[in-house]
Amino acid sequence: MTAEPDGPEDRLRRLTTIWSRALFPVTSTSLTRAEFEEQLLPLVRRLSELLRARSFDAEAAKAVGAALVGAHCTDPEALTRTLDCVDAYLVLYCGADGPQDELRMRSSRLQHAMAAGYAQALRERTLAEQEAIAQAALQAQGVVAQALHASEARFRAVFEGAAIGVGIADLDGNVLQVNEALLRMFGLSEQTVRGRRVQDWVHPEDAPQTWRLYDELVRGEREHYHLEKAFNRPDGTVLWTNLTVSLLRDADGSPQYQLALMEDTTERRLLNLRLRYEATHDALTGLPNRTLFFERLEKALNAGEGQRFGLCYLDLDGFKTINDSLGHAAGDRLLVEVADRLQSCATAPGEMVARLGGDEFVALTTGPGTEREVDELAERIMHALVTPISIDGRDLLVRGSLGIVEGPAGERTAAEVLRSADITMYRAKSAGGNRFELADPEADARAITRHGLTTALPTALERGEFFIEYQPLVHLGDGSVRGAEALVRWLHPQHGVLGPDRFIPLAEHTGLIVPLGRWVLEESIRQARAWRERHGDQSAAGPLRINVNLSPCQLSHPGLVQETVDILERAGVAPDALCLEVTESALIGADDDLLKPLRRLAEMGVDIALDDFGTGYSNLANLRRLPVSILKLDRSFTQGMQQFPADPVDLKIVEGIVTLAHSLDLAVTVEGVETGAQAEQLRILGCDTAQGWYYARPGPPERLHDLALVDATG
């Protein structure tokens, strides 16, 4: 089966051709370039699969790097050309249809793994060569005199032909012999090297144990050692090597020479440093990224007794608006400018700025006096954002919300510190933004609890953890029970029974209020039917009615009317058995589209009650256009009636509202009735129905049935 023109197979072969042209000139192989290209094709296919795989397979990428060594691509230039080719063309030819940022990050990780696999395979090959050289050296000393010439010839062949640097010195450190590979690595002549002593090659970056191991070896206390060591070249550059030094003994076992084997790792080290930088720094701003920030934060938190840390967590206010209006390119330039300003704020020792992602930045300060330093750092950050940023000829005013966490090292983990800073930042944003707040353990605990409740809401509904209590609605004229308000509760496994004020706002925020409200409506209608079947029409006022609260999110849900009709029909309950309560604040300034579902329900016979009336500062003239039949007066107007004599101002206000409502053919229900004097005063003022602890607290449906039955029988 042949690939379509410019299909995946064509792109793979073009990438293979580019790679082979770059790699073939520095490869020691007897193959032709066409044969070498066919040898690379399976490796390209494997890289393409790894680039687009769902999960990153580091071992498979290492195998690709190791395969290059197996193909005799051992010249130091071979790895550099390979990685340059992969970096420039892999995403272009094998990931054109995918998310480019993710693919480039995956490509960078593939390069890192390939380099590691290449280095490991080359090291294994080098060690094999080292073993061969060591064996040859030992054999050259240990053979009998008749075979000495042949043994020395074999050793010389291995010595001169090795790809790694080899040097021999006496136990005083005088260099006796070196091969060509070592001379090329140092850029020196043989005469210059032979005049040196091993002890002259001290380097500032030598590991602490370097010369201790050397002394142990020349004293005969150690047979060999291996470490990474740097050397200064004559041109001022640094040569990094994997150095293995072995002790050579004579026939009697006495120490005689030292043999050094050096593998040039300079290019590999520079590559690792580059890959390390790319893995720990943000590609857009150049700031340290989340990975490096967490490393520094964990180091600060483990600094020991007496050390402290301060953390500022910054989120730009309104950044999404800039992205949506001016485009992501303008948003990126804005982030770069913000990053530069933040970087200028953290220049003292122990301070750093990092970008966590999006428009979120963090600044860290460490040391014994961070209580004062973190406040000063926050002030500098806020001041740095005052000056507008010019993007495409527009001066953009940038503001930010900042959360500050400060404390001693060793008490919290990095994740806990960052979570506290994040919570504090959102507290600053909720307070209006363009400000900073200090972390508060109590506020953190509340936020964590809210988050836990939010995440538990969906499964709580599935597990049936919600239940409904009912508070009776009593007619003030004859004291009969006319219905009840359904009040949902949550029986939480850890926190016990939670009232609606604890979880309804969370359900509103997450959208779960729609299925939760539907469940409450279904359960309440089912209960209303059960009451009517048990109670019948024993009351002269008619059957009991159920009041169900309707949230703003439910009000705007397109399926509200149809779902309500379906629930009523399935339960076999008439619409006049239902009253939907909508808060006054939800209807302030409501347009006709928002009111249309309520009008349709009202036309069907469902009562609509305006809940918390008097708290929304609405225009009273709007009552004429709202499809409501009941006003529920907020309890704040009637609290003054709990004492005798009642507050005359409250009496006048309630009297005026009742007169207005009745003139508009609206019934009036009062909430929060707690005393008999209060109930009597409201009856005299003409209120129609009331609810409150004076009559009954919210409870199970059976209690309401008993109350209604008592009213019906006298």
UniProtKB/TrEMBL annotation:
Chain ranges of the PAC domain: 225-277
Domain EAL: 450-712
Domain (GGDEF): residue spans on this chain: 307-441
Residue span(s) of domain PAS: 151-221
InterPro entries in alphabetical order: Biofilm_reg_signaling (IPR052155), EAL_dom (IPR001633), EAL_sf (IPR035919), GGDEF_dom (IPR000160), Nucleotide_cyclase (IPR029787), PAC (IPR001610), PAS (IPR000014), PAS-assoc_C (IPR000700)
UniProt xrefs under SUPFAM superfamilies: EAL domain-like, Nucleotide cyclase, PYP-like sensor domain (PAS domain)
Listed NCBIfam families: GGDEF (TIGR00254), sensory_box (TIGR00229)
Protein name: Diguanylate cyclase (GGDEF)-like protein/PAS domain S-box-containing protein
